[in-house]
Amino acid sequence: MTEPANPSSLSNQPFWRLILLVDDSRAQRRALAVQLRRAGYDVLEAASTAEAMRICSERRPDFVISDWMAPGRSGLEFCQNFRNMRQDRYGYFILLTSRDDKRDVAEGLRAGADDFLTKPVSGAELLARLSAGERVLRMEDSLRSANAQLKETLSRLREREAAIDRDLREAQRLQQSLVSERNGRFGDFDISLLMRPAGHIGGDLVGFFPINARRVGLFALDVSGHGVAAALLSARLAALLSGTAEHNIAVRVSKRGRHEARSPAEIMRHLNRLMIDEVRTDAYFTMIYADLDISSGEVRLVQAGHPHPVVQRADGRIELIGDGGMPVGVFAEAHFEEIALSLAEGDRMFISSDGLTDSENPRGEPLGTEGLQAILRTNAVLRGNALLESICWSAANYALGKRNDDISAVLVERGHPCRANPTDNVTAFPALVQQRPGNQDRPEDH
Q: In this entry, which stretches build a coiled coil (predicted)?
């Protein structure tokens, strides 16, 4: 005879639960069912495992209390089948048995049972075991609810990520449009530009513009950091170095209406004041601004923390220009020194961001200035875009296709009557990377 249950023992039970009793003894089932209903549970009964499986497929009980020796299949087999059913929530399984052998207990646990009760069943112990199972089910309910919320949140995040990705792709097109012309010819000078952001958008910017019939301004800058903030600042700087003379800070209009060039140092001081007094962010940028006289080939430039411009003479000699200089937007009283040089026929000047020279091979060794010089020597016969693409290919091959920073470049070339065709010898560029072991694999397309 089972002991009567005390309904107050489950006074903390806040959820409605369904219990399935499986036993071939109708009297045993009814005795347990009465106690459980008094305790606040809804109870279903099954006289065989076949009937129990049908009920489980239709109702999905929260608790199953089954006799080990149930008719049809054993309670152990029923427990295994119950566990193998696809269920949207966990079911707590209690086996009723007269066995007390530890091996039987281990076998029941392996079959998927959560707990055991020894016959005859004590009502107080039954409710205590159900109370313990209730804690498990509450935790499962909480986890399931949290998982549903997580899935919903992830779904919303994916939607927002897709929207952000669309916006960034549009921003990429807009940023690329800041460089409206990638090539320009002024007298016997050719200017070519390259921009390759590491992500959708970046902080690098290059450009050129005519000042008057004799002078051309050109620039390369690299905003600190990456992403949207850097791109916004580079876009603002682009607006200051483009457009009409009335809006371009590099040009002033004389009283006679003539367009005159501001000095590179004056332009840098203006941009530095703008960063310190108006922009007021932690961002800064490195830059090279050059004023090119296309009649004489004279160049005046300022290097403000940007990598050294490289001049390759017609005879193949390479010169590094500048001493480094201070970045723009760091010190209010920064001094910017002008550098003068001359480009003769057959000479060229190459300016790039540090994303190129910082390219690293698998051993963590950067390409560096020496690697860049080797690329320029190897590709001496190439011109314009063919040279820029070759340089990018060589750097990518050196880094096995890995790129963590934006790459931008300006190439200024003075024509030569014996200049080779730009498409000649386009296979010359692999020479540098072949000199370095471990870089024979083809990089990703760029």
A: 140-177
Residue 265: strand, helix, or coil: helix
Label residue 22 exposed, middle or buried (CB < 10 Å: 0-12, 13-18, 19+).
buried
Tokens of 25: 């003894």
Task: Kindly list the distances between the CA atom of residue 331 and the CA atoms of 184, 320, 335, 355, 426, in Å, as whole numbers in the listed order.
Answer: 35, 25, 9, 24, 45
Domains (range + CATH), the chain: 13-146 (3.40.50.2300), 179-434 (3.60.40.10)
Is 223 buried (19+), middle (13-18) or exposed (0-12) by CB count in 10 A? buried
d(CA 312, CA 369): 13
Query: Per residue in 387-398, is it b (16+ CB within 10 Å) or e — as a string?
Result: bbbbbbbbbbbb
Query: Which residue intervals of 399-438 are DSSP H helices?
Result: 431-434
Burial letters 338-376, b for 16+ CB under 10 A, else e: ebebebeebbbbbbbbbbbbbbbbeeeebbeeebbbbbb
SS3 427: helix
DSSP 381: T
> Which SS3 state, helix, strand or coil, does residue 177 take?
helix
Cβ burial, residue 88 (10 Å; 0-12/13-18/19+): exposed
Residue 216 phi, psi (nearest 5): -130, 135
pTM of the model: 0.61
Decide the pairing of beta strands 189-196 and 407-414. antiparallel
Using a 10 angstrom Cβ sphere, with 0-12 exposed, 13-18 middle and 19 or more buried, the burial of residue 124 is middle
Q: Summarize pLDDT for 299-356 with one digit per residue, the tens.
A: 999 999 999 999 999 999 999 999 999 999 999 889 999 999 999 999 999 999 998 9
Query: Could you give the angle at which helices 123-178 and 26-38 cross, rounded to 10 degrees?
Result: 60
Question: Cα separations (Å) of 46 from 22, 24, 74, 112?
Answer: 5, 8, 14, 20
